[in-house]
Amino acid sequence: MIPIALDPADTDALYKQIADRVRAAVIAGTLAPGTRLPSSRTLSAQLGVARGTVDAAYAILSGEGAVETRGASGTIVSRQLGARPAAPAQRTLFATPDTAAAPPSPQPFRMGLPALDAFPRKLWSGLIVRASRALQTNDLIYPDPAGYLPLRHAIAAYLRLSRGIDCRPEQVLITAGFQGALTLVRHALLRQGDAVWVEDPGYLQARQALETGGAKLVPVRVDSEGIRVAAGIAAAPRAKLALVTPTHQCPLGVALTLPRRLALLAWAAEANAWVLEDDYDSEFRYAGHKLPALKSLDHADRVLFAGSFSKVLHPALRLGYLIVPAELSDTFQRASRLATAGLPLLDQQVAATFLARGHFARHIRRMRALYAERRKALATALTTIFGEKATIEPTAGGMHLLVRFPDAANDGVLVRKALKAGLAPTALSSLTMAHDCGQGLLLNFANLPAEATEDTVRRLAGAIA
Fold this sequence. Notes:
A hairpin with a 2-residue loop joins strand 5 (216-223) and strand 6. The chain contains 14 helices and 14 strands. It is elongated. It is an alpha/beta fold.
């Protein structure tokens, strides 16, 4: 006799229920290897089913190797299974599906988040549906590693008008955001131990990606005019690459002045080095004229230009682009084949349509006006609630404000307190390497509705008081 209970309401056939329950007992160790099972006649009488039903269950188990049929000696649990190891102690590193929390909502002040509440989801969804219905057989093969050609054409046309960059579609590679562009640059241009200038303070994830690839990071101080090119030359004159954010430095928000831009380009040409321009949020400027791209001044063709749709559309899209000098097109296309073998086609098709039909340009205009309003609301709330206890660093563009608290000795402590209140500012000091740039909090305003700003700032004040 073996403990088996069948469920008449179960949609599985009775023979399958029997096989499942015997198998589960074998796996659990309840039925040890070599244990003799009841005959089909005995088990059918026990369960009140036809003998053929038990025979069918035993046949399944025999085919799986779970049991062995030995003629007149009957059916036994296979000796080949060996002793079952004891079940490991329950681990609590990860939540089980039953207790897993729902995906968190965007936390106020979190860096890098655009206005998700203002994204044209209905329009985007319609474009996805139309692109899906239009899929052809040829669209199901491996995608072009360099990217969907109509999207590359659309990006080249957009950059020619908006950033003054004259490039051909063959020089455009579609990437998995900026990190994808940086990965291609590492594969194509850098070797183990190559020196790379990085802004200090600067973008943390970019530094980590370069370190992972074996680059030797050279932190170069940033001041009110941007990266100090002379300091970079003094520290590593033969560096292979310089990673810069010239339009809106991350995180200080300053712009690289024209003399510094020309000095950087002159160094790259003389040292046979490359410059990677991260143009992460240049679309959003609220005072003065829009600054030209560093690439537009690059007569020696030493600048690689990286852009991303994460900041202007939404991060989940994971699409960006990299403009490379013509002489490097083949090198980077080969690197792209090895690194990614191409990105999902449907997202690229939708993005291409979004650009080609003018939706992208209209979306940028709307977001620029919306961000100006939200930026003003945040600055006003900070001034009203904190008064002289907080100082806002003046910047002309971007999606965040840098706020300094003269009485605070450690911005990391402020961040930990804010996180407990459900807020996600970034500590300025966490983005530095070798040069102290003081304490402060980076507060993203793009995804913070103006009507909720004052209450959110009061929550921040209460958390870090």
